[in-house]
Every structure is written in structure tokens, then in C-alpha cells.
Amino acid sequence: MTERPALPVASDGSDALQVAVRVAQAAGAEIERRLPDTIGSGAKERLGLTTKGGWNDRVTEVDKAAEDAALAVLTGAFPDHEIVGEESGAHGGDSPYRWYVDPIDGTWNFASGLPHICVSVGLWGHGEPLVGVLLDPIRKETFTAATGRGSAINGTPVTVSDENRMEEALLGFDIGYKGPEGKLLLGAVAELWPGFQSVRMMGSAALGITYAGCGRLELYAHHYVQPWDIAAAIVVVREAGGIATELNGGPLTPESRSIAAGAPRIHEQFLAATAGSLWRASAC
Ligand code: IPD
Ligand code: CA
Ligand code: CA
Q1: Is 151 helix (H, G, I), strand (E, B) or coil?
Q2: What is the pTM of this model?
Q3: Which residues contact 128 (CB under 8 A, 6 or more apart)?
Q4: What is the pLDDT, as a whole number, of residue 190?
Q5: Closest protein CA for atom 12 of ligand 1
Q6: Which atom of ligand 1 is nearest to the CA of 104?
Q7: Whole domain around residue 246: which residue ranges?
Q8: Position 278 confidence tier, pLDDT thresholds 50, 70, 90
Q9: Which atom belonging to ligand 1 lies closest to the Cα atom of 226?
Q10: I need a surface site. Which of 27, 79, 261, 274 has the fewest CB within 10 A?
């Protein structure tokens, strides 16, 4: 654990960690309400799935409703803070505190009825990580972390894996929605194989990083992430005793495009094994 900076406090006396949990719960309630619509064929139509960016970058009406619910709680608690929401963009400004909200990380999973999604709520202050909360509405797990205060799942403290042998490691990746860059990642994984136990591509970067923060994976890596994918999960990994950097080993911020996070010794070996390979090119 690191130094313990003070957290901002809302007018009702709640600190930013308590507010972040309420923000995530507000989005989570919207998702839970629509879970029945994810069952069976026609789910994508029922959920109003549309294309927003690249050909396979999608959004549902639930993403938007969940973000609206989250932001209503957040702006009520901290009207002066800056907020970056995946669906609604940047709000406010001129505050040292910036929140990052991903209302559904794993939209493709959600629209396909795959049970691996989360709400991600992160707070950074003066450019430093402060709070990370991730809520999995399917498994009913809330991951909480605040700088200097540790990481927990549903209140139970967690740490990263103590594994130090790459050959025993379970690695997590995702290829995102960037065709050519995804190929670079797949190539690097293929180069490493069979030097580790196995690989998981579970479709939620935020949850993947968080899983690496609580020992479910030894490491999670992604070559193309957005601020709302990583801002909260970075706090979980670091407060659980893990390391989180860019893929080239450089310092990580929410604005970083790539990430490697998890158990310190596995992180070190992974970066060493992939140094000079395609990772460096993809992280530019
Ligand atoms: C995506 C998921 C996916 C990752 C993509 C992200 P979204 O977020 O985290 O696992 O590979 O890069 O954009 O669009 O479902 O919020
Ligand atoms: Ca996301
Ligand atoms: Ca999202």
C-alpha cells in the first residue's frame, strides 16, 4: 500500500469511495433491470444495439441509461468535479478531480448474453489515482480500492497472485475493436506460447485488469484501451500489491493507450519476453 491521500468529501459527509460505490450501484441497477432482455435470440434488437465507432464498436440503450443514472448520482455528490463518461463525453472542468465512468464494460458480452461485464468508476486527483470501484452485476461482486487503503471484493481484502513462474501463469488479454492492432497482440501471445498455463480473452478490459488485481489472473494486457477502461482498475491492481504499466514498461495514466498489469514477477517476465517485439510498435 502507498501513501494515504485524503479523499474528497461530498456535502452529505460521504467520501469519494462511498460515492463511487453508489455511482456504480446506480448504473448496475439499470443493467440488472434489463438482464432478462439478454436471454435468448433477438437480444441485440431488444437492447437497441447500434454501431457507434468502428464497425464492431457497439452501444446499447442500456449503456446510455446506465451512464445517465451514474452521472446523476455523481453530479449530485460532486457538482464541481470533472467527469469523463464513455457515452456522454467530458463534463465540467477546471477541477483537480476527474472521474472516469464506463457504464458497461463488455457491451458485446452484454448484448450477446455472456455473463462477464462490469460498471467501472474511477477517480483521479491532481493526476494521481485515488479511487477505483468496479461492480459486476452478474456475480454481484463489488471491487473497491482507494489509494493507501487496499483493495477488496465485497469488503474482503484481496491481493495480487504471489506466483513468480511464468509457466504457471494464467494470462488475460483482449483484442478490442481495432483490427490491425489486435493482430499484433495475437502475434505476441503466439510467440510466448507455450511458456504459460493458458490464456483468457473474456471481453471486459476493466474486469480483466481487476481480476489481475485479485489473483484470478497473473497478468492482464491490452494494446488499445480507453481512459474509462483502466482508470478504476489501475487503483485495484496497485492497492493489491501489483504493478501496472504501459506495455513498453512506461508509466501508466488513464490517458495511456496500452496496459500490462498484475503480479510483479510475472509482469517483469512478460515485459522482458515481449520487449523489442510487436508490443513496442503497438504502444506508440
Ligand atoms: C471494451 C472491452 C473490451 C476491450 C475493448 C473495450 P466496451 O469496452 O473492455 O474487452 O477489448 O478494447 O473498448 O466497449 O465494452 O466498454
Ligand atoms: Ca470499456
Ligand atoms: Ca462501455
Answers
A1: strand
A2: 0.96
A3: 5, 147
A4: 87
A5: 176
A6: 16
A7: 166-282
A8: low
A9: 13
A10: 79
